[in-house]
Amino acid sequence: MRRLVPLLAIGLSACADPTGPYPSLLPRAVEKQNLAEPERRAPVAVADPALDARIATISASLDDAEKRFASAARDAEAKVAVARGLAAGSERWLDAQVALSTLDALRAPVTTLQTDLETLVIERGASGQPPYPALQEAAKRADAVGAGQASRISALEAALAGA
């Protein structure tokens, strides 16, 4: 063991020479560079009266479509409640089916309005323009209305099927 200690000391002393042929383990200048992407300010959307008018028109159409759907949905709910438990093909069951198909037809304009708003959002993005807050909100609202109508139709269909 005593013979091993001097050998280890000699071996370790070779690592202590800073002027030796071995490279330094300190970070190099290249490794100290900051390669993070510089922060850039998000562009601010400029008011666009033509787009605002288009959004207002689409929103008004969405309000109208939503009201018509809600009225027809109340009618369909009443007919489904009467037809629940009756045999498929009976007169009341067929009335409920017709009411459900009317709801599907009344949902189509909302889908078209959703597509119109999404097209406007895509066109702005494709042309390099920043997101327009009023347009984003209108698109979110149209998506929410469409999803709500779809879930209401699904719930009525399930109720009619007896689920």
What report would you give on this structure?
The protein is mainly α and 163 residues long. The protein has a domain at 49-161: Orthogonal Bundle (Topoisomerase I, Chain A, domain 4), CATH 1.10.132. The chain is built from four helices and no strands. Helix 2 (49-83) runs antiparallel to helix 3 and helix 3 (91-126) runs antiparallel to helix 4 (133-161). It is elongated and about 105 Å long. The mean pLDDT is 87.
What overall geometry do the principal axes of the alpha carbons give? elongated
CATH fold-level assignment of the domain at 49-161:
Topoisomerase I, Chain A, domain 4
**What is the helical fraction, as a range of percent?**
55-70%
Question: Which stretches are low in confidence, meaning pLDDT under 50 for 5 or more residues running?
Answer: none
Distance from N terminus to C terminus (CA atoms, Å) equals: 84 Å
- How much strand? under 5%
- CATH class of the domain at 49-161 equals Mainly Alpha
Derived from helix and strand composition plus strand pairing, the structural class reads: mainly alpha
Instruction: Write the element-wise H/E pattern from the N-terminal end onward.
Output: HHHH
Mean pLDDT rating: 87
Q: Please report the number of helical segments.
A: 4
CATH structural architecture of the domain at 49-161: Orthogonal Bundle
